[in-house]
Hints:
Helices cover about 55% and strands about 10% of the residues. The chain is built from 10 helices and 4 strands. The strands form 2 sheets. The chain has a two-stranded antiparallel ribbon with strand order 1-2. The protein has a two-stranded antiparallel sheet with strand order 3-4.
Amino acid sequence: MRVGALWLAGAFLLSPDRGRAESLLPACPGENEPEAVAPPAVSSAASNPDAAANLPKMALDDAVYILGSPGRWTEKDWVIAGGAVLGVVVSAMADVPVRDATQHHRSAALDDLTRVVEPFGSEYSWGVLGAYGVAGFLLHDADARDTAIDGVIASVIASGIITPSLKRTFGRARPDQTDDPLTFRAFHSGFESLPSGHATQAFAVASVISAHSDKVWVSASAYTLAGLVAFARVYHNVHWTSDVAAGALIGTLVGRGVVALNRRIRSGDHSIKIVFAPIFSGVERGAGVTVLF
């Protein structure tokens, strides 16, 4: 099953002029206001500030909300998104020069540095989140606990859903597979360079840690480490510069989006509701999702 297709064809319609999503379910007579929508499966994570006790439901709410966010974007949001994508495209102009420069200036010091930092875009990042989790749950540190929860959710959405879907969709060859950065074969197994999964993961975790801290040195350290992970992927010739730029963008946007949404949920903001309901129409079966905020 291709998650990318499910992401792009989510079962909900969005209404940017009112700032809320409309259910695919046909409205019953007289149901013209959001309050009239029957909530057979409203996530309790949206009404219970104890996020730790409702982690699965909170994660599901976050996934639906984040993956469906493009449908709620205003014209200004689309312009900003277009500018971000343009930035990634422009960075592609540096793909070959940066690849050549890194490969021609390899050194023992850079070899050691990149070998140490690269795992922070994969298994080490989970260790970092685990450390926050231990501090949060065992030492009763609510902020550390929330950092761990938000980091895990952001990682799953960004690195487990969005980036793998885009990798398969674009089908871009890695720099160690070709000298041409414009080699694309959509849905081709083995061609999965764009975006960088390591960069996505590193920046998702860094953005969550930064958003939960008011200390400049924490944010600077988190993003510096994430940047070094991105550099390591280019240095090891497994990603183009534009690959890591795209991954950094995805990780940062998802991480900060998850933190912002979960802050509202934990504060008991009852304006956020996600309703799931079945759709039965003759022989057709499906599900409808309504996002109210």
